[in-house]
Amino acid sequence: MHTDLVAALDIGGTKIAGALVDGHGRILLRAQRPTPAQEHGDIVIRAVEAVLGELTASPLWSRVTAVGIGSAGPVDASAGTVSPVNVPGWRDFPLVERVRAVTDGLPVELIGDGVAITAAEHWQGAARGHDNALCMVVSTGVGGGLVLGGKLHPGPTGNSGHIGHISVDLDGDLCPCGSRGCVERIASGPNIARRAIEGGWQPGPEGDASAAAVAAAARAGDPVATASFERAAQALAAGIAATATLVEIDIAVIGGGVGKAGEVLFAPLRAALRDYATLSFVQRLTVTPAQMGTDAGLVGAASAALSRRPTNTVVVG
């Protein structure tokens, strides 16, 4: 039995999580720091180094053979750099080089956070057993990743499957990315809430104007809240159908905060998918909620590190 471990980092705008993970995807040790997202880039990397410091101090560290990083993007795996939208101090930041420096030169695999979550869902979650899958994170933003031919498909820079920035409305709102009518501009949590408020939906007495509050209102029958979720579902369906038509996926997995809305999202999404996924080879496409929860980023980063090491095997089971 292989006893090698990998270190995993999950880097987002809110927290930097680290773990030591075995070949079955079991987390043996955790460390975490808040992301000082608005600080200078050197302060952000110090938080990453503090997480790694906790991991390297463990007696288990001697068994670590590689490091996997799933980071908010854009990332550039070919250059080893990251430029997360929500961490302005990091622009073309040489993250791989800096992580290698504090881990005694171990091999480092960098992928985008959407790709990391895809790796986790394919290894142990809702996409397990599917050779061709799209996994999406629908929360503050909309990200994703692809499994093609049974393998994670991160693409040359680690961003492949970034469905949030497919345009589904040619004359739609300008997206912060510079394009128009992107899936993210319609289906992300803040945009679901914005549209509901613009339509006259009133937050409750506590003033909760989140997408979760809109989902609760939709469940209670509020027509404006329901319409905002239906519009988000339509955008997601168009993006998923376009992806399926291009690369013949047979399952789309949806995670993130908005993915937790349940049938308020999934019922109109399945209905809209029938309107967009019309060709014979995409009609069997299924859509399902993600299963991996908050550890998906870590497990996926570990999976990427394990699968790129020729001496290691990812153990399914």
TrEMBL record:
SUPFAM superfamilies on file: Actin-like ATPase domain
Protein name as it appears in the record: ROK family protein
Highest rank taxon of the organism: Bacteria
Family: Belongs to the ROK (NagC/XylR) family.
Species whose genome carries this gene: Streptomyces dioscori
TM segment ranges: none
PROSITE patterns: ROK
InterPro entries (alphabetical): ATPase_NBD (IPR043129), ROK (IPR000600), ROK_cs (IPR049874)
